[in-house]
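Our consortium's second objective concerns turning raw sequence data into structural hypotheses that experimental partners can test. To show how far this objective has progressed, the report includes one record in full. It was chosen at random from the queue rather than selected for favorable results. The single chain below, 120 residues long, was entered without modification.
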Amino acid sequence: MPPPTTSFQVVGKAILPVIEMEDAISFYRRLGFDVEPYDDGYSFVNNAGAEILHLRFVEDLDPERNAASVYFHVRDADAVHREWTGKGIAIDNIADRPWGMREFTVTDPAGNLIRVGQNS
């Protein structure tokens, strides 16, 4: 395997499907993110001035069967959990997981799984 390149930094951004863009925008704003709609079918989600993910309208999306997800690796998962819980959003309990992460999950209106964690 060739050595990794050092000439640029690779930053990946998830593109999450949504069935109702306004519901998705409202949800991510409620979590505290800045959401910038591009057009009726696409939006950018930003945190502290940095773009972190995209939202894309998918007409035939079934939220019950949606398997899309994103992982937010944070410095303090407990603080994020407290902040988001205080906003009245349904969130699972934070816990130390067998794979070495302290994390919790929340699901957006389109059925996208958002996992938030830190190394434990």
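The partners drew two points from this record. The chain has one domain: 14-59+66-119. Helices lie at 21-30, 77-85. Both points have been shared with the crystallography group to help prioritize constructs.
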